[in-house]
Amino acid sequence: MMLTLIDGERRHAIGAQLAGSQVQVDAADVEAALGWKLAREGLCRGSVCIPVRDRASLVSDGGLDLEALAALLDRPLALDTEERAAALGERAEDRAAALATLEAPDFTLPDLSGRLHTLSDHRGKKVLLIAYASW
What is the maximal distance between C-alpha atoms in the chain? Predict the structure, then answer.
């Protein structure tokens, strides 16, 4: 089956197999989507390698265990097997570093007249953002 893997703003269609409650993903697809390759030294991307202490929990005949991969990368994983979708969150260290800058992520929203406004266009100015939800 194909699984949609969401990594930040990017979406990747990768090969996957269900083995009980585990989702095993194709190692070549993981390398193409995330840049991480399973090597003798561990899980590597460029010159950075993460040692894989328990290789058997990560690697099987069906590929790489998605939950073990996310844990090894220190990234939270949201998985919905019925919808064939998985989302990798940011590492806690990366989120903390972004919060420490006190800089909001850039976004664009329309006003009531339909004109688009981008937050970065207002850097250095005070901005009041009002959000409403009906639920």
Answer: 58
CA angle centred on 38, ends 34 and 43, rounded to 5°: 75
Q: How many residues does the chain have?
A: 135
CA atoms within 13 A on the CB side of 12: 20
**CA torsion angle for 114, 119, 124, 130 (degrees, to 10)?**
70
Q: What is d(CA 77, CA 124) in angstroms, rounded to the nearest whole number?
A: 35
Amino acid at the residue 6? I
Q: Give me the amino acid identity at 119.
A: L
Nearest 10 degrees: Cα torsion 26, 32, 35, 37: 40
pLDDT in tens, 101-131: 888 888 998 888 999 999 999 888 888 888 8
Contact criterion met (CB below 8 Å) for 49 and 10: no
CA dihedral of 129, 125, 118, 134, whole degrees rounded to 10: 0
CB distance 37 to 44 below 8 Å = yes
